[in-house]
Amino acid sequence: MFTDSHCHLDFPCFSHELDDLFEALKSKEITKVVIPATQASSWEPVQKIASRYPSAFYALGIHPHFLTSFKSQDLETLNSLLKNRNNKCIALGEIGLDKFATTNLQQQEWVFIEQLKIAQQHQLPIILHCVKMQGRVLTILKQQKFNYGGVYHAFSGSIEIANEFIKLGFKLGVGAVITYPNSTKTRTTFSLLPLESLLLETDAPDMPLYQQQGKYNTPLNILPIFECLTTLRQESKTQLATQLYNNMHKIFALSDD
Ligand SMILES: [Zn+2]
Question: How far is the CA of 13 from the centre of ligand 1 (A)?
Answer without folding.
Answer: 15
